[in-house]
Design brief:
single chain; mainly alpha; 55% helix; 0% strand; elongated
Length: 119
């Protein structure tokens, strides 16, 4: 009988993901861990232990999948709440604040703009 390393790893990974969301840790830690484990996997494969390298590659996959799930959860959590109004035009790159003043209106034509040259 072999020890179920993959199931134990998945259990620890799910526990970490729940803790990470509870403690609001950076969700990129899993992706960084996957990249580090990928380097270890390459070294193990170069040493000739193909079976161990295949198992580590599965762990890398699970870490990357967990990192993507945490990134998606963080992305959804950071979106503004629904029903508070419409986001003003031109504010796609900055956070929406419903109490902020309206952005200045663009002028109609060149005749309405002040002349900046010498008089």
């Amino acid at each position: 009988m072999t020890f179920p390393y993959v199931l134990v790893f998945l259990g620890v990974l799910v526990a970490y993901m729940v803790y990470s969301e509870w403690a609001e840790l950076d969700s990129r830690y899993l992706v960084a861990g996957a990249l580090g484990l990928l380097v270890v996997t390459a070294v193990v494969d170069a040493a000739g232990a193909t079976g161990a390298a295949n198992t580590l590659a599965e762990f890398v996959f699970f870490l990357l999948a967990g990192g993507v799930v945490l990134l998606l959860v963080d992305h959804v959590r950071e979106q503004p709440r629904r029903g508070g109004g419409v986001r003003p035009a031109g504010s796609a790159l900055r956070p929406w604040d419903p109490d902020a003043p309206d952005p200045p209106k663009e002028r109609e034509g060149a005749a309405d703009q002040a002349f900046d040259g010498p008089e």
